[in-house]
Design brief:
- This protein is mostly helical.
- It has 3 helices and no strands.
């Protein structure tokens, strides 16, 4: 009975990881399908940030997901060797998942090249906003110090 539980766990684990890979690929594909044309409007900025998020996710997850494929193939091999009934051809699905990961990674790299000028422009916009805010803080600080409601006379502290 414990053999069935363990083999069931292994099978469910492989199926869930496979499902997660396919879901991830689908999410990234949808996320990079529409790219912003500029960074002037709030909608374009929001779209740019979403696309950048998907590119970041792809970069972070791809290598780990690719590394899971071979151990999952080995697990499927062990399950087949022990005559555990499998749902469909899992080895074929694993190979498909690996290929889809590679394909979506290539699409992500193409999208990254397309949005690079927009990223650079948005970086410059943020730097300008930061400089403007820094200037406002300096003005506020000098106004606050000059209009402070109390003044401490340095000679009276001695």
């Amino acid at each position: 009975n414990w053999i069935n539980k363990f083999s069931g766990f292994l099978l469910n684990n492989v199926l869930k990881q496979l499902e997660n890979i396919f879901d991830f690929v689908r999410e990234v594909e949808e996320g990079i399908k529409v790219l912003p044309e500029g960074s002037e409007t709030e909608e374009d900025k929001e779209l740019l940030m979403k696309v950048m998020g998907h590119l970041r996710d792809m970069k972070m997850v791809k290598d780990g997901a690719m590394a899971l494929v071979e151990p999952m193939k080995a697990t499927v091999g062990v399950l087949k060797k022990n005559n555990i009934p499998l749902e469909g051809d899992l080895l074929e699905q694993l190979e498909e998942a690996k290929n889809k990961l590679k394909d979506v990674n290539e699409k992500a790299l193409e999208a990254k090249e397309i949005i690079l000028p927009l990223q650079t422009q948005e970086t410059q916009n943020i730097k300008k906003e930061l400089e403007k805010f820094s200037g406002e803080v300096k003005v506020f600080r000098s106004d606050f110090i000059s209009g402070c409601p109390y003044h401490v006379d340095q000679t009276s502290l001695a």
